[in-house]
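Quiz preparation item.
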């Protein structure tokens, strides 16, 4: 799973400056990528994604995308298939509700 983060200012000037980021990744990985991409500019956007089981929009938060992919990776096989299907069909709210309420319970030991 990967996203391509681009410098919006440079893109508007006809230059594609960006970096692929493997997901899930650490906060530091994202911050380092943004530092390299942006330099003195402030705005970025997500130009492309590959293998991400949910919709990624241009101005989504890469930190949140990484959290979602980390939660997705933590799933077992059947759960991953089910969640992947729900996300691919646009049921983001179902995934969000699951992640917020049920996943913390599933991740606890001795449950």
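Solution:
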């Amino acid at each position: 799973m990967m996203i391509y983060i681009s410098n919006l200012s440079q893109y508007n000037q006809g230059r594609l400056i960006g970096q692929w980021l493997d997901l899930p990744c650490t906060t530091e990985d994202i911050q380092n990528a943004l530092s390299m991409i942006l330099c003195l500019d402030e705005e970025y956007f997500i130009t492309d994604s590959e293998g991400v089981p949910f919709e990624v929009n241009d101005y989504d938060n890469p930190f949140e995308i990484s959290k979602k992919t980390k939660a997705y990776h933590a799933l077992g096989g059947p759960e991953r298939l089910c969640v992947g299907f729900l996300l691919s069909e646009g049921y983001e709210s179902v995934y969000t509700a699951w992640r917020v309420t049920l996943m913390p319970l599933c991740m606890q030991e001795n449950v």
